[in-house]
Design goal:
The structure holds 2 protein chains of 2 kinds. Chain A is an alpha/beta fold. Chain A has helices at about 5, 20-25, 60-65, 90-95, 115-125, 135-140, 175-185, 200-225, 235-250, 270-295, 360-375, 380, and strands at about 35-45, 50-55, 75, 80-85, 100-105, 155, 170-175, 255-260, 300-305, 325-335, 340, 360. In chain B, the strands form 3 sheets. In chain B, strands 1-2 form a two-stranded antiparallel ribbon. Chain B has a two-stranded antiparallel ribbon with strand order 3-4. Chain B has a two-stranded antiparallel sheet with strand order 5-6. Classes of the chains: A alpha/beta, B mainly alpha.
């Protein structure tokens, strides 16, 4: 059986029993390598062209008569590209060689619906396929079957995204360790570690409960070690990043952290709204990086920032932009091999019905992160080989 | 077994004139006006969602409602116009226990599905394969029973399948239809969409595929290939009579074997409906009911994609498990949920509204405003002795892993029978077994 067939959704092939053997047979024992991946999702489709701006390009200014960022406001990165003026925090990281900007990332036959495109990014599927596990979830499956803990991947939220759901193992969603611990206490009377019956799903429920309970205990005890004094702002993303920093610096054995920032669906009056969010992102990440650096944890951490799609090159009639396709992504860390601008700037003369054409498949970025940062078998997790990019 | 004389009560929540006037304004107005009307349309979508949820909780014809829910996941569809979704839902309900061919044709020719699977863009000179692909991959045959060439040719046959924007009825656009010869499943002819559907149904694999999905939904997550092949053959021989198939299932001995009882994980909607039916609960307000669906990952009329919701273990992770085990307590205490909705509001129109509303609320959190008559409910259990009361209630609530009073470790507190029932309800719904049906 091919991996692709195995992960492909088929109603009759959802038997869970056949899965562990397959994974055991072909997956090497991968133990957590101490390195960490922090994923920041920008929900709504961030306008990449007003984030990293081709400020010398006439087509850009002609396509966006009222929305283009004026050249004198742009924070210049090189002779072609500059940053949105709300991103001073990320310019610092760029100058320190801790930011890689990868342009023209997307996938073939792009889908312009939020939910479907996000589904594709989460599951790492082809545009025409439906896979009900996520790429981080499958990383958990592949990380020594049976021995990865739910807290190996943590999403700072109250419900778990598809990205963190595996076939046999799920990540953990929590907003606040103390609250999570308290809630688990209510369920504790029913916790029976080692429970078995002939009912497979009932065993799974008890197993989930036992793992949740031990994860809650572990995180509660571990996480109270370090309380950050770094100057995080009061917005939700900054709070999430602070929580992540505290968990990392406290020494929690978690490989992947996931958080998201929403509000990028800027169809109407884009400029102010996008600037606000980019500032939150940029400042948040700046403080986060400094916090890790001060505590000597930065070298272990790589940060990855993405959105489900970019936006159309031309602005719309409401001072906004509509759903597009290819977009830039960011990789941040102190161990980057290719700091700066990774590849060619978006080609505004070669468009597909008004949309940018992708040159890098997002799964090449995933493959690189899985393999180089997490030491995992990217081909097994992604279902096929994607050429790695060498940015880390 | 199933009376076919009376057709099931259809959904009428969304009124056509209201939606049409909103849609007209949506087309005409400026950006701010459009935003306002878009929101009104979303409100109608929420009304539709909750109306169906409440119908599930109270409907006498439970099986047709449950079948409709099954088809809702099988023929997964999304649209921003709740009127189209409501009429698709009614088509599914009307055919839910009827003939699969009629059901398939009604779904395939519904405006909502034609829109969702891009068949309006499927034209003679520029075919769009999405519709043809999903009809075969997800609705009828499953992978491996057709070729890419079959998809291409079927797409040509479906060109021109559209709907009339005024009547909202299926409309065949002759000018967009490809009348050339097509080669499908090795046969050549001037096939149209109906021919393709007939040729698909002629394959017994289709009957087997449908039987397999129904088996996994009604019997057991783990397929029993032998039983499914047998059911598929019977469905095929009955010319796709779904009612006959369900009769076959419900009358089979294996349906009542312990290995097939209490093994399915309740989906979020099943959990809400099942709990509410037991309590005879009445809810005020829509928001919290949407919230629970949302946080547990199953919002009616918003399937994740055309493949529908993945069932079984997929519903369970640490956070959903904690939420589910606490759900009964929240209903009894009428207390706020402590969870917040996900940040990716833009990916889901309903979310935008909930976020705006939740910001207006002082506490920022949702609570289920449920009215439950505990006195009446507790009086419906005749027994007065604690042990018998415990056993009766647990029998009513738990399908999997029967518990009895002696080894449950549950202690009744002194007080009214209704107070005892509340405590017992919290205890039983908190048990992992309650998540199975």
């Amino acid at each position: 059986m091919k991996r692709k067939d195995f992960i492909h959704l088929s109603a009759l092939a959802t038997t869970a029993l056949m899965v562990p053997d397959f994974l055991k047979a072909s997956s090497p024992f991968i133990s957590a390598n101490g390195k960490k991946l922090v994923i920041v999702q920008l929900s709504g489709g961030n306008d990449g062209l007003n984030t990293i701006i081709p400020y010398r390009n006439d087509i850009y200014y002609k396509s966006r008569p009222t929305l283009a960022i004026k050249e004198d406001k742009v924070i210049k990165l090189n002779d072609d590209l500059g940053m949105n003026d709300a991103m001073a925090g990320m310019k610092d990281l760029f100058d320190e060689g801790m930011l890689t900007i990868i342009n023209n990332v997307g996938y073939p036959n792009p889908d312009r619906s939020h939910f479907r495109s996000m589904d594709i990014w989460h599951s790492a599927s082809d545009s025409a396929d439906y896979i009900n596990t996520g790429w981080i979830g499958r990383y958990l499956d592949a990380t020594c079957s049976g021995c990865s803990k739910p807290y190996t991947a943590i999403e700072i939220d109250d419900s778990l995204s598809l990205a963190l759901k595996g076939r046999n193992t799920n990540g953990l969603a929590l907003h606040d360790v103390n609250l999570f611990y308290k809630m688990m206490k209510d369920a504790e009377p029913f916790n029976k570690p080692g429970f078995t019956s002939s009912n497979d799903n009932l065993n799974y429920l008890y197993k989930t409960l036992a793992e949740t309970s031990s994860s809650a205990d572990y995180l509660y005890q571990k996480s109270n070690v370090y309380h950050s004094k770094a100057p995080y702002a009061g917005n939700a993303l900054a709070k999430d990043l602070k929580t992540i920093a505290e968990l990392i610096i406290s020494g929690v054995d978690t490989s992947v952290f996931y958080t998201s920032l929403s509000g990028f669906d800027t169809h109407v009056n884009q400029q102010g709204a996008q600037a606000t969010h980019l500032k939150e992102l940029s400042e948040g990440l700046n403080v986060f990086v400094q916090d890790l650096k001060t505590n000597s944890r930065l070298d272990d951490v790589t940060i990855f920032v993405f959105s489900e799609f970019g936006r159309r090159v031309s602005q719309n009639a409401s001072n906004g932009t509509d759903h597009g396709t290819a977009n830039n992504v960011f990789v941040i860390g102190s161990k980057l091999k290719t700091p700066g601008i990774f590849n060619e700037t978006p080609d505004l003369t070669q468009l597909d019905q008004g949309d940018l054409i992708h040159h890098i498949d997002f799964r090449q970025v995933y493959a690189t992160l899985l393999n180089k940062q997490l030491g995992a078998d990217d081909e097994l997790i992604l279902g096929k080989k994607f050429e790695q990019l060498g940015f880390i | 077994m199933f009376s076919k004389s009376s057709s099931p009560r259809e959904m009428t929540e969304v009124k056509r004139p209201e939606v049409e006037s909103i849609v007209a304004e949506l087309k005409a107005g400026d950006a701010d006006t459009r935003k306002m009307y878009r929101k009104m349309l979303l409100e109608k979508g929420v009304d539709l969602n909750v109306a169906w949820l409440k119908k599930m909780m109270t409907e006498q014809a439970q099986l047709s409602e449950k079948m409709t829910f099954f088809w809702h996941g099988h023929f997964a569809c999304r649209d921003d116009n709740p009127l189209l979704l409501q009429s698709l839902n009614n088509e599914m309900r009307a055919n839910s226990l009827g003939n699969f061919k009629n059901l398939l044709l009604a779904v395939a020719q519904s405006p909502a599905m034609l829109k969702f699977l891009n068949n309006l863009q499927n034209k003679k000179d520029a075919p769009n394969e999405n519709f043809a692909r999903e009809v075969m991959e997800l609705f009828t045959l499953g992978r491996g029973n057709y070729t890419e060439h079959d998809i291409k040719e079927a797409a040509r046959a479906f060109t021109g399948w559209s709907f009339d924007k005024d009547t909202l009825e299926f409309h065949f656009r002759e000018k967009q239809h490809d009348f050339g010869n097509k080669e499908f499943f090795g046969k050549t002819g001037n096939f149209d969409g109906k021919d393709i559907i007939d040729m698909i149904l002629f394959k017994e694999e289709c009957a087997r595929f449908i039987a397999g999905k129904i088996y996994q939904f009604f019997v057991n997550d783990l397929p029993d290939e032998k039983v499914i092949a047998d059911l598929g053959h019977k469905l095929y021989m009955s010319d796709y009579d779904i009612g006959e198939l369900m009769k076959e299932i419900f009358l089979a001995d294996w349906f009542y074997e312990p290995k097939n009882v209490g093994t399915r994980v309740k989906s979020p909607v099943e959990l809400i409906v099942n709990t509410s039916r037991f309590l005879n609960a009445e809810y005020a307000g829509n928001d919290a009911l949407i919230f629970v669906q949302r946080i547990l990952g199953q919002v009616l009329f918003l399937p994740p994609n055309v493949a529908g919701w993945p069932n079984g273990k997929r519903w369970i992770d640490s956070s959903s498990m904690i939420f589910r085990m606490d759900f009964g307590r929240k209903l009894v205490d009428v207390s706020e949920f402590t969870q917040r909705l996900k940040a990716d509001d833009d990916t889901d129109p309903n979310m935008v509204m909930l976020k705006e509303k939740s910001l207006k609320k002082k506490g920022r959190f949702f609570e289920l405003d449920a009215t439950i008559n505990w006195d009446v409910l507790s009086a419906s259990f005749n027994s007065t002795a604690d042990v018998q009361f415990f056993n009766d209630v647990s029998q009513a609530l738990l399908v999997a892993g029967k518990v009895n009073y002696d080894n449950a470790g549950f202690q009744f507190k002194e007080g009214e029978k209704s107070a005892k029932l509340k405590a017992l309800f919290v205890y039983l719904t908190g048990r992992p077994e309650f998540q199975l049906c």
